[in-house]
Amino acid sequence: MSRIAVLSDIHGNLAALKAVVADAEGQGCTQFLNLGDILSGPLWPAETADFLMARGWPTIAGNHERQVLTLPPERTGPSDAFARECLSEAHIAWVASLPETLSLPGMLLVHGTPRSDVEHFLETVDPGGIRHATEAEIAERLGDAAVPLTLCGHTHVVRQVRLADGRLVANAGSVGLQAFDDDHLHPYRVENGDPRARYLIVEFGAVTIHTVGYDYEAAAAKAAREGREDWAVALRTGRMTA
After folding, report:
1. pLDDT given for residue 1 in this prediction
2. Which residues, in sequence order, are bridge partners of residue 6?
3. Is there a contact between 36 and 117 (Cβ–Cβ < 8 Å)?
């Protein structure tokens, strides 16, 4: 079995993506998987789409792909709106072609969970914020998926949990954005506290976490030029406030 790099939540951060690909190739990875939330954000959505379309990796859609395609302008957030404005019809057609989930030998690829692209898998959002999910919560979300390894993204929190029955669920974290806030279910924020990109390597069913430095100052400067100082801070620090 070849070494497989698993990427998620690129969010148009081409600088981080290129650094991760170079690192993964240096680690001997010959296959790449992409778990969605690919383009949305005030960075390089069109250029990121071009980079990925040329490579043809197995790729699924995240909630932001769905939102870019389906939400009316009055309900579209600024990150999705920026991406949609930058994308060509060829880019949009590629996004529309992406499946919501993907089954590969021994693996299931999802963005959130098998049943929802916005449900957290290994984390739970409570009124008090976000916390690690319990094994019972994870097992309920996984359902009867009879595969050894399920790969997910969405939360930007890199983590893996092996259930009592041996099934492994692994979150690839985020290539492109290490802090964000949201109000889905309840207001919460994710802050990894480190601007470096994250991804996973899978080999013989084992999963390892990899962290990669890149020119996050260039990404932060691009976000600032687009009027998104919130992203600039998050990209530079891995936190929501400087």
Report:
1. 59
2. 33, 200
3. yes
Token pair 């790449």 is at which residue? 32
Beta carbons of 119 and 156 less than 8 angstroms apart: no
Q: Which domains does the chain have, with CATH numbers?
A: 3-237 (3.60.21.10)
The confidence score (pLDDT) of residue 242 equals 59
Rounded to an integer, the average pLDDT of 37-66 is 98
Residue 104, pLDDT > 90, answer yes
Listed in sequence order, the residues at least 6 apart from 210 whose beta carbon sits closer than 8 Å to its beta carbon are: 23, 24, 27, 198, 199, 200, 201
How high is the mean pLDDT of the chain? 96
Contact of 113 with 123, CB cutoff 8 Å: no
Say what angle helices 14-26 and 45-53 make with each other, to 10 degrees: 30
The whole model's pTM is what? 0.96
Assign residue 231 a region (left: φ > 0; alpha: ψ between -120 and 50; beta: otherwise).
alpha
Tokens of 217: 């100052």
